Amino acid sequence: MVSAYGCVALCYCAFFAMPVSPAEPQDAFSFSIEESVYSSFPHIRETVYTNGKAFVGVATIRTISAPNAVFSAAFDRLDGYAEDYARDQYGIEIDVVAESNEKDYSFSGHRAVRYIYGVWKEVTVGYPPFETKLDVKMAEMGAIAWFCNVDFESVVLFYVTPAYFVDEPELDVLAVQTMELVAAVACH
Amino acid sequence: MELPILLLASASVPFGLVAMHDILSGEKKRGVFGIASAAWSFSGIFLVYLGVPGLLFFPGLMVILLASSLSRARRGGGVAQYLRPLALAALLVLITAGLVLL
Q: Would the pLDDT of B94 be above 80?
């Protein structure tokens, strides 16, 4: 009986250590790509796509079937983590506000969880003594996660698109390109 | 189908073999429950692969375990024998309620 338990444990260890087949877009468009193995057990592979002010990160994680509630629970805490990260890494005070969440979002042929956050920063406009403080939306951040049943992998995708400003129309183009890249991400 | 999925499915095989041994050595009831749980886990992997929600399988396994310990408790012993099925039933109710609420 003990050896049966040992065999089962070995099977599970081998399963979690097996390299994942990373979820990726069919076309990387004009983004530069950086790939790395984040963890060997369980095997997690991360791919980061960057293009100027836009960012898309895709993590493919070896998992047994993961319910969408697990992803929702993680995304519910993401705003606080993002605020702390910006403060610790860059010394920037931002407010990350969840703008919408869908727990049964159709994405890439799967039922996914999608959260969208607005990244807000307080800026001072004008010159003393007439300056005023305004809350400006600097960027939009999205998080999408789903379980790839054909690969037994969970995919977590993050993206940040710069907010569109009237005087910087090229940022609008960049936001469109980022969303095209996000929409093209699919399981292996 | 890829190797990781076959590895995961094969994790049920050792318990299936132990259950077969139980049947052959006279512990028929215990063996049947063992075979049922191994078969349930094994088929679960392939059904999840085909798109069936994985949430269904853990409660199913708990039901088989509950039936097995109830049958063992009914065969003999005192009130203490019913503690295990009672604990399993409570866990099953909690898991099912958790899945519905989530």
A: no
Q: Are A113 and A68 in contact (CB under 8 A)?
A: yes
Could you tell me if B20 lies within 8 Å of chain A, comparing CB atoms? Answer: no
Taking an 8 Å cut-off on Cβ atoms, the answer to whether B48 and A149 are in contact is yes
Provide the pLDDT for residue B69. Answer: 81
Burial class (CB in 10 A: 0-12, 13-18, 19+), A80: exposed
From CA A131, how far away is CA B20, in angstroms rounded?
81
pLDDT tens, position by position, B15-57: 889 889 988 988 888 889 889 989 998 998 888 888 888 877 8
ipTM greater than cut 0.85: no
Contact B25/A at CB under 8 A: no
Question: Whose CA is closest to A17, among A53, A49, A61?
Answer: A61
In tens, the pLDDT along A156-168 reads 999 988 766 556 7
Chain A interface test: which of B20, B35, B37, B48 (most A C-beta within 10 Å):
B48
Q: Looking at the complex, does the CB of residue B8 fall below 8 Å from at least one CB of chain A?
A: yes
Cα(A80)–Cα(A76) distance, rounded to whole angstroms? 9
A29: left (phi over 0), alpha (psi -120 to 50) or beta: left
Chain B residue at shortest CA distance from A152: B5
